[in-house]
Task: inverse folding
């Protein structure tokens, strides 16, 4: 193992030691949430009743929920992957890990003890990104496991496997937010402002996507929101568009490269 | 032998604020080097520049033969550092902290057990989270993490801060061991008696500028002497004022700070006065320090 790889591994263990406690309740909560949703999936004899209820909603609300797709088991369960509760818990992980990775260590003064070791600056960013990705994998994995177990307990005609692409795109979306969070963290001297800005980016992106779907004058701004590229029900209906994967991966890489450039040139 | 530290015109500027101005310094391998200066003089800035934590505005520096910054990353495995304002992770135990920093240093902690014993940190202490430590215990843990891997060079910024006299003595013993192992110590302190006691050479900074450096003896030798002349009867001694700075005067006593080279001339002139007593005191490091920073 080369020195840098060993350093990243050591820093990753350091991040794990700092963040493992909240990871478990987040994963459990999100898994339970998705499991409970499988109990609410409309059975075939309930679809007509649900459909008439659905028709009474305003058109914008129907659009937000996913129109007729929401009445299918896959579409209904996909709602759980764009539900604010799901978004909130994933965001909490991203904000916590990315803000503390650099700005938090600088702000508390512990970066002096870390960066005076044979650890290149980029290893802090890479370890932070790995912590983000692994934590996301645990949380999104728990969500999917909740769905899969729920569908085994209460079969509704689909398997958990059909929802795996949604989990994968959720992982990619929040990986991109994680990279942006690390970029923000690399630019700040304290965790507080880094937490504020990362939260603002995620919340702003969510709100922009929400409003742009409801209000046509700003519909053209929707591509500026990363949530534009995360449509669980569209994935259920027509699969995962390749451009979505490309955009999310490119955003992640671009944010990481910008973070590396900033970190290499700043005082710690 | 490669010097442990060489800087050339090293400078750090924060906007319009000059934290360090053109520092040129050489610290030889195996010496204990004292770095003196009042708060804000640039001591910590210098150390943080040498560790690659800050980006220099100007100049160059080499630590253990490697340029500071990215080229010096691997070299930092042979460097120990105790920050002046030590921060550790409150939730980690002492053991966890030491083992984590050992792994990050990528060197075995060959001196950890000796240091723990010397500083009186027990296994029970190290099993507790750092948040429960007193300032003194935290400082002891900081010293252990800085020295546990027997670095070739250690930067110790105010190392005895918060230590009781017994532990201070243990620290001086640890420094003696470090010296025996050929370790170079870059030692920043406000406690001048301590610097005088343990350091081979010193440098003094004022407002980011180096004002003196050399062996303690040479720094003291270059300082002015305190000359006290007592007269046998009331005397107008104003003609002696030109030899130095008058610190106090009465009709029968004159106290001056005089350059070493001017002392013989002063004595020759003073011999024409009704002298009762003359004392010439070498300046202590503290006097030299105050002389520079008044």
Result:
């Amino acid at each position: 193992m080369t020195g840098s790889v060993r350093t990243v591994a050591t820093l990753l263990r350091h991040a794990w030691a700092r963040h493992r406690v909240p990871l478990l309740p987040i994963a459990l909560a999100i898994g339970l949430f998705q499991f409970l949703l499988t109990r609410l999936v409309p059975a075939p004899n309930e679809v007509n009743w649900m459909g008439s209820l659905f028709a009474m909603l305003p058109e914008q609300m129907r659009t937000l929920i996913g129109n007729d797709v929401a009445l299918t088991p896959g579409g209904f369960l996909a709602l759980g992957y764009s539900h604010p509760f799901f978004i909130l818990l994933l965001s909490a992980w991203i904000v916590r890990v990315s803000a503390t990775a650099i700005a938090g260590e600088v702000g508390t003064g512990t970066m002096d003890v870390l960066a005076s070791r044979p650890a290149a600056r980029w290893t802090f960013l890479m370890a932070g990104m790995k912590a983000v990705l692994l934590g996301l994998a645990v949380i999104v994995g728990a969500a999917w496991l909740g769905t899969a177990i729920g569908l085994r307990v209460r079969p509704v005609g689909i398997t958990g496997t059909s929802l795996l692409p949604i989990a994968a795109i959720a992982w990619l979306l929040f990986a991109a937010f994680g990279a942006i969070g690390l970029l923000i963290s690399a630019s700040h001297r304290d965790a507080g402002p880094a937490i504020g800005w990362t939260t603002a980016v995620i919340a702003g992106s969510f709100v922009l996507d929400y409003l742009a779907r409801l209000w046509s004058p700003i519909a053209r701004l929707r591509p500026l929101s990363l949530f534009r590229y995360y449509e669980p029900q569209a994935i259920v209906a027509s699969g995962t568009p390749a451009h979505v994967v490309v955009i999310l991966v490119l955003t992640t890489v671009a944010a990481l490269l910008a973070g590396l450039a900033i970190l290499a040139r700043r005082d710690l | 032998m490669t010097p442990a530290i060489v800087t050339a015109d090293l400078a750090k500027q924060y906007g319009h604020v000059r934290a360090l101005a053109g520092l040129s310094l050489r610290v030889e391998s195996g010496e204990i080097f004292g770095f003196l200066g009042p708060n804000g003089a640039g001591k910590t800035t210098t150390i943080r520049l040498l560790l690659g934590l800050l980006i220099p505005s100007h100049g160059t520096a080499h630590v253990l033969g490697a340029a500071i910054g990215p080229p010096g990353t691997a070299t930092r495995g042979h460097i120990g550092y105790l920050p002046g304002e030590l921060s550790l992770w409150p939730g980690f135990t002492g053991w966890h902290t030491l083992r984590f920093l050992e792994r990050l240093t990528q060197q075995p902690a060959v001196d950890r057990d000796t240091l723990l014993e010397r500083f009186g940190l027990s296994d029970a202490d190290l099993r507790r989270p750092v948040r429960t430590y007193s300032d003194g215990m935290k400082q002891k843990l900081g010293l252990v993490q800085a020295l546990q891997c027997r670095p070739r060079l250690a930067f110790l910024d105010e190392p005895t801060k918060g230590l009781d006299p017994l532990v201070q003595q243990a620290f001086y013993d640890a420094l003696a061991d470090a010296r025996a192992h050929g370790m170079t110590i870059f030692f920043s302190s406000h406690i001048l008696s301590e610097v005088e006691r343990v350091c081979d050479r010193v440098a003094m900074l004022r407002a980011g500028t180096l004002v003196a450096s050399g062996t303690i003896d040479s720094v003291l030798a270059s300082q002015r002497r305190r000359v006290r002349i007592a007269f046998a009867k009331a005397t107008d001694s104003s003609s002696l004022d030109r030899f130095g700075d008058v610190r106090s005067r009465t009709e029968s006593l004159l106290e001056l700070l005089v350059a070493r080279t001017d002392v013989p001339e002063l004595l020759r002139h003073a011999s024409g006065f009704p002298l009762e007593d003359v004392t010439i005191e070498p300046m202590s490091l503290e006097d030299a320090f105050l002389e520079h920073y008044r």
Observations:
- Chain B touches chain A at residues 48, 51-55, 70, 73-77, 79, 81, 83, 85-89, 91-92, 96, 100-101, 103-106, 145, 155 (CB under 8 Å).
- The two ends of chain B are 38 Å apart (CA to CA).
- The longest strand of chain B covers residues 17-27.
